[in-house]
């Protein structure tokens, strides 16, 4: 029995001594203010470059899409040249409305091109809206013909 108690005490001591965690030493690294400023400036420059690239990509895609839409409007106008009298007058009015919407989209694109910084993100919605309006109008005009 005496041996049993000694073994039990030894086991308890081993378990208790193994359950304690070694203290964690916390260290605070000191970073020079100049390093923080440099890193912040680099991050800002990277963000600005990414925004400019995104703006340039959007602007290029929109210019291409607008050029395609202008060609489509010209095709519709040419198809209507064979119409006579009232049908021709109505078709000319439809084409004039398309050209007006095209002009609005072009103005939005020009405004976007002149924008700087984060302002272009707000203008992007206006450009997209003008594009959708023009696209829908061309679709409807094509159905009429």
**Main sheet makeup:** none
**Relative strand content:** under 5%
Which structural class should the secondary elements be placed in? mainly alpha
Q: Quote the distance from N terminus to C terminus.
A: 107 Å
Give structural notes.
The chain has 145 residues and is mostly helical. The protein has a domain of 92 residues. Helices cover 83% and strands 0% of the residues. It is built from four helices and no strands. Helix 2 packs parallel to helix 4 and helix 3 runs antiparallel to helix 4. It is elongated, with a radius of gyration of 35 Å.
Can I get a quick summary?
The chain is mainly α and 145 residues long. It is built from four helices and no strands. α2 (33-79) runs antiparallel to α3, α2 packs parallel to α4 (119-144) and α3 runs antiparallel to α4.
């Amino acid at each position: 029995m005496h041996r049993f108690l000694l073994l039990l005490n030894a086991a308890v001591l081993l378990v208790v001594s193994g359950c304690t965690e070694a203290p964690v030493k916390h260290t605070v690294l000191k970073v020079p203010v100049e390093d923080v400023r440099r890193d912040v400036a680099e991050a800002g420059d990277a963000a600005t470059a990414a925004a400019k690239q995104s703006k340039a990509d959007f602007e290029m895609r929109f210019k291409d899409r607008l050029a395609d839409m202008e060609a489509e409007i010209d095709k519709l106008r040419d198809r209507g040249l064979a119409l006579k009298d009232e049908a021709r007058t109505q078709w000319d009015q439809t084409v004039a409305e398309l050209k007006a919407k095209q002009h609005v989209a072009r103005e939005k694109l020009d405004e976007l091109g002149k924008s700087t910084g984060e302002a272009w993100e707000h203008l992007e919605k206006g450009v997209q809206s003008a594009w959708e309006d023009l696209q829908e109008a061309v679709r409807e005009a094509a159905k009429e013909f």
